[in-house]
Amino acid sequence: xxxxxxxxxxxxxxxxxxxxxxxxxxxxxxxxxxxxxxxxxxxxxxxxxxxxxxxxxxxxxxxxxxxxxxxxxxxxxxxxxxxxxxxxxxxxxxxxxxxxxxxxxxxxxxxxxxxxxxxxxxxxxxxxxxxxxxxxxxxxxxxxxxxxxxxxxxxxxxxxxxxxxxxxxxxxxxxxxxxxxxxxxxxxxxxxxxxxxxxxxxxxxxxxxxxxxxxxxxxxxxxxxxxxxxxxxxxxxxxxxxxxxxxxxxxxxxxxxxxxxxxxxxxxxxxxxxxxxxxxxxxxxxxxxxxxxxxxxxxxxxxxxxxxxxxxxxxxxxxxxxxxx
Length: 325
Fold this sequence. Notes:
alpha/beta; D-Maltodextrin-Binding Protein, domain 2; 2 domains; six-stranded mixed beta sheet; five-stranded mixed beta sheet; 11 strands; disordered N terminus
């Protein structure tokens, strides 16, 4: 009986290895390849994915489509990809919510590091801390100083929701500054921006691309950007690092992931194709149009980044006592 079990196991292992080898050799002959975006159509992430999928279709000589699976801060789409066949045909196209969600939610139906592996880091999106023009603080230091006062409104900020990159970027600032701020989470950046423009909430931290039109129209006042360097779109606006917090860097990165068991050979094909696609002027223009920069990294570098940020975000969750909705 024991010999039979060993023989059966060995056969199953051989079949699995053969299947992985065949899929790697044939990839991407089956098609189509799906870029699964965890956010609604029409947003900045979706726009970048659609520019990339067109170029990837040309490079891989295979149809690459965008499939939107919005909801739960990107966890629905990540779960879908994590449980898909590890054959390279289903790819998660996501933001650093990928690491945030693992730190924030205790009972995810997947484990980010165990169940997924990186394909390529593509870019990063700058975030902006801004205010309604009538708000008294015009600099970050003024905002933090007034946050120590008794007026609760003057320490209140909006974000696109609990666990959003804007929420975590502000929570990290709150921790560094030893401040006590009041978070007003919304179901998406759109309604949060509308309420700050309407002066229902005085401050906001969200992606620069989402805030820029209102900044240019004078409906929002820019205070500081979260990136390591100033944004060329707002060259006169300081970074948070320049505003008293050296080393602060909380941009929102964009990256691609596949199921953990996807063969190295397939990941390598996807990585090289993505790096070629990102060099295309139209893809770079789409990233910069969303107030982003091209920021590339290998699969190994991306996995290391995810590991580091899960640890960082877990500490933010604990120190700031952040509770999921």
